[in-house]
Design a protein that fits this description.
With 559 residues, the protein is mainly beta. 11% of the residues lie in helices and 44% in strands. It folds into three domains: 58-172, Thrombin, subunit H, CATH 2.40.10; 214-352, Lipocalin (Beta Barrel); 353-389 and 391-532, no CATH class.
């Protein structure tokens, strides 16, 4: 690290052009050049380690499991039919903790089994329709507890981490697997139940789960009351958990069912929504849009709601208030849980109202004024191709919700049934803006739930890692985790939005930090170029950027 200029928090001289970079859950800044993989502290820029034996490692070949002091590096060069060697690195020192024997194929999915102190790695050696190899690997030793070939053929999806010239195929478009107790439920190509202790396939049924090439159109399996629920192509199925016997199959609801919630004998399924089509890299709305409630035991329809318009967020179940909450393009809708007679009542329908905000007085004067979601559409293109609709409902630790879109935020109190502040921000004129901000909106919800899981695991397992003598910097990792995953940190104070700013340094694309308590812009940072390559550490408000072709990295605080 060399001396930082006054406007920079810190700078680094990279050993070559930076190919990709990211901030890990532990607060380390990870980046790669063709010459190696490197890590620094995201807040201070302090160099932590370098691995120049790991050359030309692509973004998709390195993964982390939040709460675990390891980075997993797959040495498969992204090539189908090539065997893969998996390395586990100490996330704070970069030292190799363990490495596997070569596995057949490339890493297609990786997810934690926190309860058994292990991870599940799914590998494939094919493209298109693929057979999978499922491995259960101990976090601490790298030993495969078991290995299971899944004979059913599975569709692979083009990954966003690949490139036009080096496409990547993996399982990222499928519903996430579900772990319940000692059982693993996979929904890649039907529904399959695996015993996590033995690796035995207890039962499985293959059926088509894809909506053409659209991603994430099906829900993760739900396990409740001795049944396992699976959704695919607008149809919900219930299986006996012990035997795998099919108990019932719903009617075809004519839409994707990307989310299910079970509560007190009722299974709620969200119908339709906005899904990514990877070939065009565009998001598509799939209709009908709404919610269906089924008798969880019999599969009969209790009620069906199609009053949502043009979009729908994830569902939020509030049993205390007696409502199931969703947001559509213009309203926040509370559906009564006391529905009867095949009809559902809207407990409330509240318009989503926002104010345009800006960090600069000139823009604030030009764009101030109250408007509803229709107001955003009214200021957008006539074909509504850039209309900003709600994407996610994000719960907060205090019981309130954030309604998040690409360019707007709103605070809602479910108990008082009142919306608080609402803020909206002009979309800056930069390339790939829609993709960047849609991903950011979904990531806000993902980060909340991931933080909860990582915090729970870390709190119950730190002694296990502390007693492992191979970890020279475990105390440093413990401090980082305690800081980032404390109870206070889980309820983040700021959300960061990409927008146009008007500052003393310049006028144009930048980042603003929005206080989630009052919706006010309290932080800002101006970008001096219109195609910024940046990552942000939302915990500290540090924006880290790279100089394309120059090998330089610099960090700035959103102040």
């Amino acid at each position: 690290m060399f001396a930082a200029k006054p406007e920079y928090a810190w700078t680094l001289e990279a050993n070559g052009d930076v190919k990709w970079h990211r901030v890990t859950a532990a607060g380390t800044y990870l980046y790669a050049t063709d010459n190696g993989v490197y890590a620094a502290d995201a807040e201070t820029g302090q160099e932590l380690w370098k691995r120049e034996d790991l050359k030309k490692v692509p973004d998709f070949a390195i993964e982390e499991v939040p709460g675990v002091p390891l980075l997993f590096v797959a040495d498969d060069e992204g090539k189908i039919m090539k065997s893969t060697k998996l390395y586990a690195l100490d996330i704070m020192t970069g030292k190799t903790i363990w490495e596997t024997d070569k596995l057949q194929g490339q890493m297609a999915d990786l997810f934690p089994d926190y309860e058994h102190n292990a991870m599940v790695l799914v590998a494939t050696a094919y493209t298109g329709k693929a057979r999978l190899q499922v491995l259960h690997i101990d976090f601490g030793t790298g030993k495969a507890n078991w290995e299971l070939p899944l004979e059913v053929k599975v569709d692979l999806y083009v990954s966003e981490k690949g490139s036009k010239f080096s496409p990547r195929m993996d399982l990222n478009g499928h519903a996430a697997p579900t772990i319940a107790g000692d059982s693993l439920y996979l929904a890649y190509a039907g529904l399959h139940k695996v015993n996590l202790k033995t690796g035995k396939l207890e039962w499985g049924f293959g059926f088509d789960v894809t909506e053409k090439s659209l991603k994430n159109t099906n829900a993760s399996p739900v396990v409740a009351g001795g049944l396992v629920y699976s959704s695919a192509k607008g149809v919900i199925r219930a299986y006996d958990d012990a035997s795998g016997q099919l108990k019932w199959t719903s009617t075809d609801f004519g839409a994707a069912i990307p989310e299910m919630i079970h509560d007190k004998g009722t299974l709620y399924g969200r119908m339709g929504g906005v899904f990514l089509e990877p070939a065009s890299r565009a998001y598509q709305l799939k209709k009908p849009v709404g919610v269906v409630a089924l008798d969880a035991g019999a599969g009969s329809v209790r009620w069906r709601y199609e009053g949502a318009k043009e979009s729908i967020t994830n569902m939020h179940l509030d049993t205390k208030a007696g409502v199931l909450l969703v947001a559509d393009a213009k309203n926040l809708i509370g559906l009564s849980l006391d529905a009867s007679g095949n009809k559902v009542k809207e407990s409330y329908r509240l318009p989503l109202e926002f104010k345009f905000k800006s960090s600069g007085a000139k823009k604030a004067a030009k764009m101030a004024g109250r408007f509803a979601m229709g107001g955003i559409a009214g200021m957008a293109r006539k074909d509504k191709s850039d209309e900003d609709q709600p994407i996610a409902l994000v719960p907060r630790a205090d019981g309130q919700l954030i309604v998040r879109g690409k360019q707007h935020l709103l605070l809602f109190d479910p108990q008082a049934k009142k919306t608080g502040w609402g803020s909206a921000f002009k979309a800056p004129g930069i390339s790939n803006f829609a993709k960047v901000m849609t991903v950011a909106a979904f990531a806000m919800s993902y980060a909340y739930h991931t933080s909860q899981a990582a915090s729970t695991y870390y709190g119950t397992s730190e002694n296990r890692w502390h007693n492992d003598q191979r970890f020279g910097a475990i105390n440093q990792f413990e401090k980082a985790m305690a800081k980032r995953y404390s109870a206070a940190a889980l309820n983040s104070k700021y959300a960061y939005m990409l927008t146009d700013v008007d500052t003393d340094d310049g006028d144009g694309p930048g980042i603003v930090g929005v206080n989630l308590e009052n919706g006010e812009v309290e932080r800002e940072l101006y970008f001096k170029d219109r195609e910024p390559d940046y990552v942000i550490d939302e915990k500290s408000g540090t924006v880290i950027r790279t100089h394309k072709g120059k090998g330089g990295i610099f960090a700035q605080q959103v102040r």
